[in-house]
Design a protein that fits this description.
492 residues; Immunoglobulin-like; 2 domains; four-stranded antiparallel β-sheet
Amino acid sequence: MNEEPVAKTAAKAEKTIPLNEVVISLYEAQDKIYPRSVSGFFTKWRWVMIWLTQLFFYGVPWLEWGQRQALLFDLDAKRFYIFNLVLYPQDLIYLTAILIISALSLFLFTAIAGRLWCGYACPQTVYTEIFLWIERKIEGDRATRMRFDASTMSAKKLARKGAKHFIWIVFALWTGFTFVGYFTPIRELLNEFIHVNVSPWEIFWVCFYGFATYGNAGFMREQVCKYMCPYARFQSAMFDDDTLIVTYDEERGEPRGGRSRKVEVNSKELGACIDCSLCVQVCPTGIDIRKGLQYECIGCGACADVCDTVMDKMGYERGLIKYSTQHAITNKWTHKEMIRRILRPRVLIYASILGLIIIALMTSLWFRTHFRVDVVRDRGVMARLSDDGKLENVYRLQIMNGTESVQHYKLNVSGIKDLEIESEAVTESEESEHKDHNKTITVNPAESRWLIVDLKIPDGTLESGSHKIQFEIQAIESKEIVTEKSVFLVPR
């Protein structure tokens, strides 16, 4: 093989690369980030959100509503229980509305305050913070952890690492167990684990979500936010110059440089930034906010908290790093001017659409009937002559009881004169309660019932073809009425 052309090509490629550019491998190993612990206004709010979200997540599955779990997505029974609300697959529109409301809320919050969700309530952020807290308690602060990881393996190091990972794994598995508890009644699931009678699928999903929590929060951490989460990539489409973001006041802070506490700001032609790099050390994604807004920034405000602490120690004014907007920094707006500009057309449109959808959802749920009916023609028997010489059509009715009590329903069909109704609506034990038992259907709480309904007319009464009819089902207890349209077929 002639190597001369290959060498010339390589030399030519080297010449085309500018000397001031650095080639970075896509597969370069990333250094581990050791976030420094910090305290302050925004950090306290982050922990408030951590407590609120985790109390909700771990606590709600154990709440009972009547004789069942308050919040349960029962896939086997094809029913979703949301406190006093029972949803069936036919109620998918309500779940869709909830998802749309969640998406629009995210757009609204992002337009107002950037990655507010990422910094304070995202599960990745929340569990990473919890895992870091466990790591700090066992291995020490940032400097201690860095020395600890750099040291050679010893019995002490093995014991601490083992204890940390053991607690991580237990916490992650409990998280996976709780997540599965939203789809399988959690008390039954716990009883199955205690008696070692768990289905393979339940074991798989508990381990799967436990492993995901362990891996994402324990090891991948900021890599999930930087490379796996799509929100970091398209957030810029929802940002503008009036969006609240974590901002470094470059005009006030530059030029940066170290100095004694006794030196007043600007006395040595230096800005307020003393170049301590603490804002980088506390950042969970390891960025330098002084370089401007970057897509890796999750808007947690940790850098603002630690910078305020430094400014207090130096005797300088707080707010070198703060939540602000590009327009506010450029135009030197006051706090009131900045807040007033936040209520701009974009935000008002998002808020109006979100409000209308919420009102529509609440109105629909308020006027929603507490049962549903599906009418399906029996395709195996379109039309036939019965033994008594009458023309018969067969239908299958599904009545879904969306309440937590036994309900009774009356069936009536209109649209054709002299139409007879036959069905196996009630059992013998129900005749004493309802004299009109041939047309009364009993459905247990939060269950659905299928029944066969035969409609008959004297042969020759109607012309051949399709004739419109209407099923009318009335709940005896609540007096609610549901109507469903269908057709009665007369063959030629």
